[in-house]
From TrEMBL:
Origin superkingdom: Bacteria
Protein name: RidA family protein
Pfam families in UniProt: Ribonuc_L-PSP
Taxonomic lineage from the root: Bacteria, Pseudomonadati, Pseudomonadota, Betaproteobacteria, Neisseriales
Family membership: Belongs to the RutC family.
Length: 125
């Protein structure tokens, strides 16, 4: 006996930009999960890298029909907490007032020492 069709549809998983280690976007049950986003221009300071990461997040969300106002949760990883204010300056200029997500910011050793910030977000579709 199979699942009812509506249940089968509600549990479908769509993956976008699939690579050998991760998918950049996974959509399940009207929720969008983004892989950790990093800047491509690694010679930028923390604010510059944050702005680049936020632009990538917005582009990926828009690709699947979501938007930054629908971000539910954000986890921000900083290589050095000394960059907290610079990251927050870029974040505050980008986030939509009244639509701020739940958020955590932690210091972590990132995969490349040139990375200053990495962000992971979950959003509603």
């Amino acid at each position: 006996m199979g699942l009812p069709e509506e249940h089968a549809m509600s549990t479908s998983i769509q993956r976008y930009h699939i690579g050998p280690r991760l998918a950049e976007i996974v959509v399940h049950n009207n929720t969008v999960y983004l892989a950790g986003q990093i800047a491509e221009t690694l010679d930028k300071d923390a604010r510059g890298q944050t702005e680049e990461v936020l632009a990538a997040i917005e582009r990926l969300l828009n690709e699947v029909g979501s938007e930054k106002q629908k971000i539910l949760s954000a986890t921000i990883y900083l290589a050095d907490m000394a960059d907290y204010d610079a990251m927050n300056d870029a974040w505050s200029a980008w986030v939509v007032p009244g639509h701020t997500p739940a958020r955590a910011t932690v210091e972590a050793r990132l995969a490349d020492p040139r990375y200053r910030v990495e962000m992971v977000v979950i959003a509603a579709l």
